Amino acid sequence: WVGTPVNIFAFAKLERGMTSRMEVLERIMRKLVRPDFNPNSYDHVSDYLFKQKGYEPVYHTAAGRGAVDYETLEILRGDHNDRFIGVLQEYRRWKKLSGTYLKGFKARIWKKDKRVHTDYSITGTKTGRLSSSRPNMQNLPKTAVQFQGISMRDIIGAPKGWKLVAADMSQVEVHIAGIVFKDKKLLSMLK
C-alpha cells in the first residue's frame, strides 16, 4: 500500500490561500452585518436576512423557519442584489471545498512518507468498478479548488521516474464482451 505522493509545499500554499480568502470574506460579512457575526450560524444568517433586512423567506425549513440554503440565497440574491448574499455564497463554497478536499486529504497524509493513503475497493460500487474513499482520489476537482494557480490536482503526483496514470473504465464490460466473443461489429463500434 504505497500511497500517492503529495507536494506538501503546494498543499500548504493552497491551504493558506483558501484559509486567507475565507478570513477576508468573514471580515467583509462582519463589516456588513455586525462585529460578532458568524457566517456558520443559521440563527445569525436568518436573523440578518429575514429580521434585519426584512426579506421574505422563499422556502421554509421543516421547523417552519426561513431557509438559508444555496437555492434560497440564489433567489434572494437575484431579487435584492444584496452584496452580503454573494459574499456568503462565496464563503460557503470555499468552506465546503476546504472541508471536503483539504481536510480530508490532510487527515490521510502520512507524516513519515508524505503520501496520501486512500482506501480502494472493488465492492464499493454496484457496478463492480474500483472505487476510492477516505479521501476520494477519483473525484478531485480540476478547477473548483484553485488558489494562486495551484489546484487540488497539482498537489498529487508520481515519484521521480514514475508516471501517474488516469484511466477511464467506461464501458469496460462491453469491450471485454466484444473481445471474448470476437464480435467485430461490436468492437468496431467501440473504437
Primary descriptors:
single chain; 191 residues; mainly alpha; three-stranded antiparallel β-sheet; two-stranded antiparallel sheet; 7 strands; 8% strand
Tell me the layout of helices and strands.
Layout: E1 4-5, H1 8-32, H2 42-52, H3 70-80, H4 83-108, E2 109-110, E3 115-116, E4 119-121, E5 131-133, E6 146-147, E7 150-151, H5 172-180, H6 184-189
Antiparallel strand pairs: 1-3, 2-3, 4-5, 6-7
Helix pairs in contact: 1-4, 3-4
Structural class: mainly alpha
Secondary-structure element sequence? EHHHHEEEEEEHH
> Compute the gyration radius: what is it?
23 Å
Question: Regions with pLDDT < 50 over 5+ consecutive residues?
Answer: none
**What percent of residues adopt helix (DSSP H or I)?**
40-55%
Gross morphology: extended
Write a short abstract of this structure.
By secondary structure, the protein is mainly α. The protein is 46% helix and 8% strand. It has a three-stranded antiparallel beta sheet.
